[in-house]
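Hey, can you fold this one?
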Amino acid sequence: MSTAKREAWGRLRKLPSGRWQARYPAPDGETHTARTEDDKPLTFLTKTDARAWLASVHTKIAREEWESPSVLAARRRAEAETEKARSVGFSEYADCWIALIRTEPNRSGKKRAIGTIRSYKSKVDGYLIPEFGDTPVRRIDEARIRVMTDRLDTIPSPLNPRSKFNGITRPVLIVLMMILRQAARDGIIPAAPNISIPRQESVRHDADHDDSEDVASPEQIEDLYAATPKQWAIMVLFAAWCQLRRGECLGLQRRDIEWHDDGTATLHVRRQLSANTGDYSSELKSDAGKRSLSIPRIMRDRLEAHLRDNVAPEAKAPLIPTNIRGSVPLSNTRWGYVWADAREAVPGLPSRFRFHDLRHTGLTIFAQEGATLAELMRRGGHADIRVVLRYQHATMSRDRELADRMSDRVADRIAAAKRRAGEQPPDGDGHL
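Sure. Predicted structure:
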């Protein structure tokens, strides 16, 4: 049988096992039995050991350092979990971050597109995990990031090996910055280290390249139209004369074309074909992407013929079907091969001319006709005026043309008036 003996403070009891148990009155008004720091029962081999432990607890109470065993254990568990989290390796945390952004909205409150997540994951799997592996996140500092940056900078550009910018360093560092900022919000690191993000530079072209060099001539656009298989050739005209993006072209359906009694037509851009899923998506590049455009006269007859010969009669039939009058839209990948063949068949195109450059060509010509920046933004479905400012050279060219025409007309009238008055007319440059 166990025996209990009262001490000067607390109680000791010998258990049937021969070990000793200690109990004591605590400041919380309860009588507690000795427990370990992780809140498990604690017994002692000898009475002396139990008495020494009881004295140590009495001292803690006297110094007001005592905590309830359950509270102390909970705090220690939390500290251990925090320490474990702070020791998490980069690879493990990066996977958790990818899982987080799949469901968490971005700063504008929208769910991230599948293509965006895939792009981030490709940077994580292709560059960041090979660089950091299981290195604890808290050990990734500015010095370590500089080493990685220098290594990334040595990778040649896959688009233009001669370019001094590879198009890799900047996006990889941006993803790393997002991961480390989330780690700071999660308390894994006190603050994200400073990451120097290089500014965006052209990869396809040299530093002295001008955007105007990416503009094709109307004759070359006509040649591209002729070089493209007839059932898909309308893609060239949609990109050049309606200034659509590739996904917007492939996402068009018969119901998006509205014909009017006067022979004009309106194009409604409502969706795009996702290059990642192959499905229609109503989420365009921006809210400004949803727009209605007047279809230029130059392509109306060809569009009408295309609808008659290649598109099924249903309202939701794709305008660019895989097969004639089919119900499945042509894929981004298939169009890439079609475009490459058509481009190779047209001589004299600008170096590395892309399908997207047809859109740039169309917007440049639209600007040359006197379109304002606001009109260019609406036509192109742009949300950021900084993007549209690249066409300012075209609007300035048109402005100079109009200014010269105005100057010539004014000079002619002044010259005529002076001739009537027998005075000296202005010189050929329009100067008085």
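The chain is about 45% helix and 10% strand. Let me know if you want another pass with a different chain boundary.
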